Amino acid sequence: MADQVKTIGVLTSGGDAPGMNAAIRAVVRTAIARGLKVKGIERGYMGLLHEDIKDMQTRDVSDIIQKGGTILGTARCPEFAKLEVQQKGADICRKHGIDGLVVIGGDGSYRGAQALARLGINAVGLPGTIDLDISCTDYTIGFDTAVNTAMEAIDKVRDTSSSHERCSIIEVMGRNAGYIALWCGIANGAEDILIPEEYDYNEQTIINHIIAKRKIGKKHHIIINAEGIGHSNSMAKRIEAATGMETRATILGHMQRGGSPTCKDRYYASVMGAYAVDLLIQGKTKRVVAYKAGEFVDFDIEEALAMQKEIPAYSLEVSKLLSL
After folding, report:
1. What positions carry a catalytic annotation?
2. Average pLDDT taken over every residue of the chain
3. Is the pTM of this model over 0.70?
4. Average pLDDT of the segment spanning 197-219
5. CA proximity to 58, closest of 76, 40, 73
6. Cβ distance 179 to 312 under 8 Å?
7. How many beta carbons lie within 10 A of that of residue 238, not counting itself?
8. Is the pLDDT of residue 59 over 80?
């Protein structure tokens, strides 16, 4: 089986994440060092369907490890959920001699890799998402950079919130996962943290908390609101009307996706990229690379997709204790 892998394709899919370029670089250079050819697929599964495929050499990934985004580009491709479209993708891989594929992305990207593996294309997934919402791994490429970007921005908003004695609602990304909100809420010393995994949508609890804090002399209030809850601007208007405290909403948005990746994102992504290539060389397919309990490991894609991930209960408890 190992002898059958001659050419590895690599693509990035879904939302971009800092560290994806480090993973691409590692895939390309590890594969070439192992005697394989590499083809870069631009714009994810959409680019695969349009045959936007190019040969890659070691020099093509020079000077990219420090850059955010992805040099291969990325795009959403909902039509890849259809069997006939998946078959077209597998046929295109064979047409271009791609017998091993590294897919860097989130759960949706994994499902595409799973489909191609079922159709005979050896495929390995890497966890590339700022949301930290892939169940089989303790780390996802881009989360560390994104959460530090958000933390630094919240520190700045906190300064002006304190100066004006305001309540500030700061909305962070994370889709339907609350990890960025929870981490920033604790790291930034927020008074309230709203995450989709726990929030009961009872704004009166927040209002009561603000009023109680003001009675003991607290002059400003920070609320970290997860993207999965959203509606920060309308929430700010309701809170201001109920408390009499000037309230402003700040939506950090896509700035959290960009920027130069942290050392952790560069290092972990590099090791994961090399690991993926070696799995394919060993003849393994339908696998996802993960970081679990301090080690780089791999899981069957179907097993990984079936896992459930929960916000750590103790971290939630700590966030509430520290906001008292």
Report:
1. 131
2. 95
3. yes
4. 94
5. 40
6. no
7. 14
8. yes
- Evaluate if residue 179 carries a pLDDT over 70: yes
d(CA 211, CA 221): 10
Pick the closest to residue 108 from 88, 89, 133 (CA basis): 133
Amino acid at 190: A
**C-alpha closest to that of 170 among 244, 256, 241, 242:** 256
Angle between helices 232-243 and 203-215 (to 10 degrees): 50
Exposed, middle or buried, 200 (CB in 10 Å: 0-12/13-18/19+)?
Answer: exposed
Please write down the HEC assignment for all residues of the chain.
Answer: CHHHCCEEEEEECCCCCCCHHHHHHHHHHHHHHCCCEEEEECCHHHHHHCCCEEEECHHHHCCCCCCCCCCCCCCCCHHHHCHHHHHHHHHHHHHCCCCEEEEEECHHHHHHHHHHHHCCCEEEEEEECCCCCCCCCCCCECHHHHHHHHHHHHHHHHHHHHHHCCEEEEEECCCCCCHHHHHHHHHCCCCEEECCCCCCCCHHHHHHHHHHHHHCCCCCEEEEEECCCCCHHHHHHHHHHHHCCCEEEEECHHHHCCCCCCHHHHHHHHHHHHHHHHHHHCCCCCEEEEEECCEEEEEEHHHHHHCCCCCCHHHHHHHHHHCC
Over 60: is that where the pLDDT of 295 sits? yes
| Closest to 106 in 3D by CA, of 36, 22, 174 | 174
